[in-house]
Design brief:
By secondary structure, the protein is mainly alpha-helical. The protein is built from eleven helices and two strands. About 70% of the residues lie in helices and about 5% in strands. A hairpin with a 3-residue loop joins strand 1 and strand 2. The radius of gyration is 21 Å and the shape is elongated.
Length: about 240
């Protein structure tokens, strides 16, 4: 019996790309388990040996982890792990954290306006409604409000569909948490943030990418100014 010919590198790479697209489509996060091998092969209409070769490519790239007897799991990319380690050292200043948000979120808002579906808009509006509910109750649960604020921004980034940005979403969440740690608690900031969120959502819903990115930049710049002013006041006291 002749040996089975190895899969052409180009075909294996193409299947690997399809797998990554499937992971993004199903919104799987690091740690999530992929569907069983047979189901994946059927979904992609490829043979199981071909699928295994593609999975090994992704494992070599650090994008999935194959655990024998357990299945295949999404893994946080190495670049994201390195970014997370860098962020969590807390050696970055506030300006650098806000710079990172601008680089990732401003273009993402533009792309989201071009791609957002009715369901995406519904999810964004539901998040803002949740924020409204929390701010109407005294005392305000700032931890929950911060989580919902981050969810609103992260949902926009997710809608944009940029592969690199999506791979670093969890790191961006850490960046946002650190950059928003005190700003939402400052007097008047909650009302300003709510108003700006609604303007950003309206721009995305209308499909106006240029306006959405402009409003997002203004929103982040305002939060930056507030955070820096608060930090300076703390230093002087």
């Amino acid at each position: 019996m002749s040996a089975v010919a190895p899969l052409a590198p180009q075909r294996a790479a193409r299947i690997a790309t399809q797998l990554m697209e499937l992971i993004e489509l199903q919104k799987l996060s690091p740690g999530d388990k992929l569907p069983p091998e047979r189901q994946l092969a059927d979904l992609l209409e490829v043979s199981r040996p071909s699928l295994r070769e593609a999975l090994h490519i992704l494992q070599a790239q650090g994008l999935v982890q194959i655990k024998h007897g357990q299945g295949t799991f999404v893994q946080e990319p190495v670049v994201a792990q390195e970014l997370r380690a860098s962020v969590m050292t807390k050696t970055h200043g506030l300006n650098e954290l806000f710079d990172a948000r601008e680089v990732l979120e401003v273009p993402a808002s533009k792309w989201a306006a071009e791609k957002a579906t009715k369901e995406d808009i519904r999810l964004l509006r539901a998040t803002l409604n949740q924020i409204d509910t929390i701010t109407a109750i005294e005392p305000i649960d700032f931890d929950q409000m911060q989580a919902l604020d981050a969810k609103f921004h992260l949902t926009i980034v997710g809608i944009a569909g940029n592969r690199f940005i999506n791979q670093t979403l969890n790191v961006l969440q850490d960046v946002m948490k650190m950059s928003m740690e005190t700003t939402l608690r400052l007097p008047g900031r909650t009302e300003i943030s709510r108003s700006q969120h609604n303007e950003i959502l309206a721009a995305i819903e209308s499909g106006d990418g240029e306006l959405a990115s402009k409003l997002t930049l203004q929103h982040i710049s305002g939060a930056r100014s507030t955070a820096l002013a608060d930090a300076k006041m703390r230093e002087n006291n």
